Amino acid sequence: MATVLSNIAVSDEFYLLKASGKFDGKMGQFCMLRAWEDYPVLSRPISIFDCDDEGISFLYKVVGQGTEILAQLKAGDDIDVQGPYGTGFPDVTGKIALVGGGIGVAPLHLTAKVLKAAGNQVDMYLGFQSEPLLKEQYEAVCDKLIINIGGYVTDDINPAEYDYILTCGPEIMMKVLYNKVKDTDAQLYVSMENRMGCGVGACLVCSCKTSGGNKKVCKDGPVFKAEEVFADEQ
Ligand SMILES: Cc1cc2nc3c(=O)[nH]c(=O)nc-3n(C[C@H](O)[C@H](O)[C@H](O)COP(=O)(O)OP(=O)(O)OC[C@H]3O[C@@H](n4cnc5c(N)ncnc54)[C@H](O)[C@@H]3O)c2cc1C
Ligand code: FES
Q1: What's the predicted TM-score (pTM) here?
Q2: 85-129 pLDDT, tens per residue?
Q3: By the 8 A CB rule, do 98 and 29 touch?
Q4: 113, 128, 132 from 137: Cα distances, Å
């Protein structure tokens, strides 16, 4: 069991929670969080926003019962943090763009931090409905931060400028990006956020159709090469 170190409202609906413990969190991985006894039955998958010597952080949007309970937690409360789980973003090198929409910006913070520390050029394109979240934190981990409020973040990027593009957000946004990227030399990786049950590959709830057959988003993903999941859907 981990201890909540802080749980701060960063806007009306979004919270940043930090829990104690040593976690070897990789870019694009997630944890299964739980701060209740029997109900809701399932723990909730939340991406790793950051990971350091003190603990692990999660940026989450309050949408239902589980996240409402998380939002009530105070420093010193217990939280069950299972993981890190999943296959996250690959360790790419070169000129890299990270494109996030809505709560899909969450896993891109650690991703930018790791890729920039490795000496890559990292540009971030983040789209929000009404107000930017944690602008200073994102600015601190990339070379260039482009924020889009209320429009289409996919309009802001020229994919031909990049070697790799890593994205997380609404599926429609990632498909638009796929169509924009596919005729360039850039390679696109997408992080899928299918509904999950167990989070560890045992229940098949998260199953996703790919060019290589059905895969488990929680174990084979959440990150896939874009053409694996979107190429058949044109
Ligand atoms: C790999 C992965 C990483 C994720 N990372 C984050 C993150 O970093 N921050 C964050 O805020 N959320 C993230 N999510 C989504 C998060 O897991 C759900 O919002 C959460 O489980 C909702 O729980 P709840 O009990 O509050 O709401 P519920 O009562 O379970 O659901 C409330 C509403 O949200 C919808 N919903 C629930 N889960 C999903 C989902 N996976 N995709 C689309 N709609 C959903 C439901 O259909 C329902 O309308 C991630 C999901 C996955 C699979
Ligand atoms: S959530 Fe159970 S197999 Fe993926």
Answers
A1: 0.97
A2: 999 999 999 999 999 999 999 999 999 999 999 999 999 999 999
A3: no
A4: 10, 15, 11
Q: Which CATH class is domain 192-234?
A: mainly beta
What CATH code is assigned to 89-190?
3.40.50.80
How far, in Å, CA of 102 to CA of 34, rounded?
23
- What fold characterizes domain 2-85? Elongation Factor Tu (Ef-tu); domain 3 (2.40.30)
Pocket test for ligand 2, best of 29, 43, 204, 208 (most atoms within 8 A of CB): 204
Domain with CATH 3.40.50.80 in the chain: 89-190
Task: For residues 126 and 109, give the distance between their C-alpha atoms in angstroms, rounded to a whole number.
Answer: 11
Q: List, by residue range, all CATH 2.40.30.10 domains of the chain.
A: 2-85
pLDDT, one tens digit per residue, over 176-206 is 999 999 999 999 999 998 999 999 999 999 9
Between the alpha carbon of residue 7 and those of residues 21, 59, 196, the distances in Å are 15, 10, 24
For ligand 1, atom 23, name the residue with the nearest CA: 66
Distance in Å, CA 29 to ligand 2 centroid: 14
In the chain, the N- to C-terminal Cα span, in Å, equals 45
Q: How many whole angstroms from 11 Cα to the centroid of ligand 2? A: 31
Q: How confident is the model at residue 231 (pLDDT cuts 50, 70, 90)?
A: confident
